[in-house]
Design a protein that fits this description.
Blueprint (H helix, E strand, L loop, with lengths): L1 H46 L14 E5 L3 H6 L10 E5 L2 H9 L5 E5 H7 L6 E3 L5 E5 L2 E2 L4 H17 L1 H9 L22 E6 L8 E3 L2 E3 L1 H13 L2 E6 L5 H6 L5 E2 L7 H4 L3 E2 L4 E10 L10 H10 L4 H39 L3 H16 L2 H12 L7 H27 L2 H9 L4 H31 L11 H12 L3 H33 L1
Helix pairs in contact: 5-7, 6-7, 11-12, 11-14, 11-16, 11-17, 12-14, 13-14, 14-16, 15-16, 16-18, 17-18
């Protein structure tokens, strides 16, 4: 009996121990989870990164968007809140994606299909399942062009009824249908009704992007289909996204199509066609596979420059950069010499009062405003109603800008020439103009040659803003490659090296010229 009692007592003690252990384990598990959560929060605070898993997590985050897009508009609602939400705006989606990969921002808000294209080869990024916003795409047209708007809507209606719109979209979206329905214009179509200039931003795959040196995509095929319906030739103009509405409004382009959503704010400045597709805004975030395998240098080089002959974008951009810089510096020097002579003549003789006032106003405006603003004013305002070649626009803008700086450089050089040189020329029977051109200016040029060379070097680098009017210069060529590959390093380094080689070659040439001039003096 005693043995049984002892056995029961032992079992009871064991049961209590097991229960106790179980209770302690549960408590310890709860504490461990809480500690893990706190440690994760501490790590986020220390690293400065914020984990985005839903729309509710956007408060206090750094949000990346493409400037001027609907994502930018929607994200602006979060900006400036009490949680300290920051919206980082980029000119290109590729730049925003690169910033996300590097941990500079916490997420990117963009349209679904371009989001999928941007992370196609990025294992470290993912798209959240939760949609950020639903939207409809439409074509933008100038408010005073109701006739074209009516034609566009009529063509869209026909294309929708025929099923052509669905086929065009299916040709680029969908695993089973991709590449199955390429749009081909009819052989018997004649384009006798004129031209439609289409403004787009070819960095928005699959809606518009570069492939094989040409701009292709859903929107481009839709524009071509509309042109076929209207019997009008389609001409594509690639530019920054935030410049499209301005281009259409100023009639630099007839329509704008670039995955553009109609909003109340945009509708105040521009008209929109009927919607041609429905999509959604999504959020790209960093995934769990942050240590994704990267391509080798050789593979990256081939992908950026060899595949589809993408090096041609740099070659074309370099050609345009050199043409613009050479023409602009030549015209700028002529303008600068004339302005300098007027200013010096007024300072020395008190004459040319009206011309001097005009020159001073010119110098004040040009030197007091950024070159980018001047370029945009000349393109969108001065030549608003005139279809001028963009290279000519760029040459005019940079020549006018360079002329102002050359004028002050030359004026300083002329004033540095000893006054006795002018007096000696006049004593030899030369008039003021002859003395200036034969005696003073040659000496002044020798003095200011290094400064003129620096102005030319600066001008070459300033041409990098030509992309704002849709012109492919060297920098824009690199941007196009980045928008295709979503790779920043090689395109940017390559563009930098090309600029560096050009600058060093110019510096070497100027040094040689200076040495020769010094030898001639001896």
């Amino acid at each position: 009996m005693k043995k049984k009692l002892l056995l029961l007592a032992a079992l009871a003690v064991m049961s209590l121990t097991i229960v106790g252990v179980g209770d302690v384990s549960a408590e310890e598990t709860t504490v461990t989870k809480q500690q893990a959560g706190e440690e994760q929060q501490d790590e986020e605070k220390q690293s400065g990164e914020k984990v985005i898993e839903s729309i509710d997590d956007l408060s206090g985050a750094k949000i990346g968007v493409q400037l001027g897009t609907v994502g930018d508009i929607y994200a602006s609602d979060y900006e400036g809140d009490d949680a300290g939400t920051v919206v980082e705006r980029y000119n290109k989606l590729a730049d925003a994606v690169q910033a996300l990969k590097q941990g500079k921002i916490d997420c990117v808000i963009v349209d679904e299909q371009p989001a999928k294209a941007s992370i196609e080869n990025e294992d470290s990024l993912k798209i959240l399942d939760e949609p950020f916003k639903m939207e409809e795409y439409a074509i933008c047209i100038a408010k005073d062009n109701d006739e074209l708007l009516e034609k566009i809507n009529s063509a869209l209606s026909e294309l929708r009824e025929e099923g052509t719109l669905d086929k065009i979209i299916s040709n680029y979206i969908g695993d089973d249908t991709k590449g199955q329905y390429p749009y081909v214009s009819g052989e018997e179509i004649s384009y006798d009704n004129g031209v439609i200039t289409v403004a787009t931003n070819a960095a928005f795959k699959p809606y518009e992007y570069y492939e094989g040196g040409e701009i292709v995509g859903i929107d481009i095929d839709i524009a071509k289909a509309i042109g076929d319906k209207l019997g009008m030739e389609i001409v594509i103009e690639d530019m920054e996204f935030d410049a499209i509405i301005n281009a259409v409004d100023s009639h630099k382009a007839d329509i704008g199509i670039a995955g553009m959503t109609m909003t109340e704010e945009r509708a105040k400045s521009i008209s929109f066609s009927d919607s041609y597709t429905t999509t959604k805004q999504v959020m790209i975030v960093r995934g769990e596979n942050l240590a994704a395998e990267e391509l080798t240098f050789r593979e990256n080089f081939v992908r950026n420059f060899i595949t589809d002959s993408r090096w041609q974008y740099l070659a074309k951009g370099l050609k345009n950069t050199i043409i613009i810089a050479l023409c602009a510096v030549f015209i700028g020097m002529i303008i600068g010499f004339l302005v300098a002579v007027v200013r010096v003549t007024h300072d020395k003789t008190g004459g040319l009062v009206i011309l001097n006032a005009i020159c001073r106003l010119y110098l004040m405006i040009i030197r007091g405003t950024p070159i980018m603003i001047q370029l945009l004013i000349i393109y969108y305002v001065v030549f608003k109603s005139v279809n001028v070649d963009k290279i000519l626009v760029a040459v005019i803008a940079f020549a006018i800008n360079s002329g102002a700086y050359v004028a002050e450089i030359m004026r300083g050089g002329i004033m540095s020439v000893d006054e006795g040189q002018m007096e000696a020329g006049r004593s030899l029977g030369l008039n003021y103009s002859q003395t200036m051109t034969s005696i003073v200016l040659p000496q002044a040029i020798k003095v200011v040659l290094p400064s003129l060379a620096n102005e030319f070097i600066s001008l070459i680098k300033e041409t990098s803003i030509c992309g704002y009017i849709g012109l492919i210069d060297l920098t824009r060529g690199g941007d196009i490659i980045r928008s295709i590959t979503y790779e920043a390093f090689l395109p940017l380094i390559s563009v930098s090296i090309i600029y560096l080689v050009i600058v060093e070659a110019l510096t070497f040439g100027v040094r040689k010229l200076e040495n020769r001039m010094s030898t001639d003096e001896k």
